[in-house]
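Page 37, top half.
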Amino acid sequence: MDEECTPPAGPEPKRPRRAERNGRKRKQPRKVSPEYLENSALHYLERFASSAANLKRVLMRKVMLSASVHDTDPDEGAAWVDALIERYQRAGLLDDGAYAAMRARSINRQGGPERAIRAKLAAKGVAAEHVDAAVDELREDVGGDPDMAAAVALARRRGFGPFRRPSLSAKPLPPEERRMKELAAMARAGFSFDTATRVIDAERPEDLDEDMAAFP
């Protein structure tokens, strides 16, 4: 009696992409032109503040996609992008100094220390002189230690130190264990041990206001 032969297994079928699973075709990248890049840049700036280098990266991604799909000339596209960036800088639509100052204030209010401000601005391609000027301006605006102000903002938002809220857990953490977890969170956010302990160990929020006011 002949044995039943099992056909060799073929390659597993490819999983459909998310757009295909949702019944939508994946959108093909557009062919770039000066007009398309202009419209893309204005649309981006309507939604987001941007440094010159960051907007250039956004537009160059479109240039490279167009080159790969439509065989357009990437050097020609790069020249269009450079001309657009220079024109926007002359017109004041792109101002890295103003952008750096705005982002520094925003990051500080959200609880980011100077280290985070410098890292995030550098990642957006902002020159060091603009970063330094933004940090100096922030010190004047805060009227105290910017890192202390950011640490207080983070502690208030997260309920650390003098901003602790009553625990709703049936088994709340012991005070020292909770303190150590809060210090660890502050360290992960980029604060020094000295700044973190000053905030976490403060007895009252008013004590922190006095600390910030004492900054020369």
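Page 37, bottom half:
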Amino acid sequence: MRKYLLLDDNEAFAENLAEILRDGGDEATVVTEGARALELARSQVFDVLLTDMKMPGMSGAAAVHRIRQVDPGLAAVVITAYPGEDDLETARREGLLAVLPKPVPIPSLVSLLSEARRDGLVALVEDDLALSDNLTEVLRARGFSCVTARSVLDTEQLASVRPFVALVDLRLPGGPDGEALRRLRERFPEMPVFVMTAYPEVLPSAAVPEPTDVFSKPFDTAGLLDALERVHAERRQRTS
């Protein structure tokens, strides 16, 4: 049985979704204020947080940030009728499973929620926007959330999140080959890292530590996903 925390000031929408989730055998708790959601996250372990963005009092972005400080492993989905709002980028930096526009088709939302993984946040450090977007979508289909960085400097923004694994390109703007990898290793010394590179010849100079899985571009996405699945399963076994 999965546990969902639904935060929305539109209580009718949230209760309707909660009823559907309960009919599927899961547990769903509805709250209309961020402060109450934070209180519940301190006392219970949920699998997924679903939150609206624009609400009285605590915004959805602030709720994701504060709840993640209490429970870094919680998957988060944001729904919003205002996809251009500034707070949305703040929420994205927390590492979301998805951002969905209102009105959202309930069957699609339920399917997404059912696949979401606890402790499934992936740090994706890649400056190729097309590849980054493609990998984000592929990972989301497997229930993994993503937080992205596209330069060495961007990796500093990952300080507030707790990914279980990182996918890192060796050559990124803002530093020498391997600098983003070095900074991630320094910040998260125990985190597994998979290297992605179109320049395998720079591996020795980039001081890639052993053992590190290296995927040479263009790589087999299925192989990468299998490796992620293995690491996630091992983490869940250690923490269960």
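Margin note: Residues 221-239 form the longest helix (19 residues).
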